[in-house]
Write a structure and sequence with these properties.
Blueprint (H helix, E strand, L loop, with lengths): L6 H18 L4 H24 L4 H5 L5 H9 L1
């Protein structure tokens, strides 16, 4: 199985994080409303990219290795 190229997804998620921060720092009601629209659009783009990649919510929630396996790798 080949690894998925998630670089575009990572870029979208980084942009979403920045937009959420800008929304949190918005000063006027008009700016908050505008930035809220941008955040919703960014969320849609992230969801669309996840669907394109065939990713499910469990792909993000399940670790690829157990904590014991991780410790063993780190100690090796």
């Amino acid at each position: 199985m080949t690894a998925r190229d998630t670089s575009h997804l990572v870029a979208l998620m980084t942009g979403l994080s920045r937009e959420r921060q800008r929304l949190a720092n918005a000063r006027t009601e008009q700016e908050r409303a505008l930035r809220a629209v941008w955040v919703r659009q960014s969320e849609k783009e992230v969801n669309a990219e996840e669907r394109f990649l065939g990713m499910t919510e469990t792909d993000w929630n399940e670790p690829e290795m157990s904590a014991d396996d991780l410790m063993a790798e780190l100690m090796a």
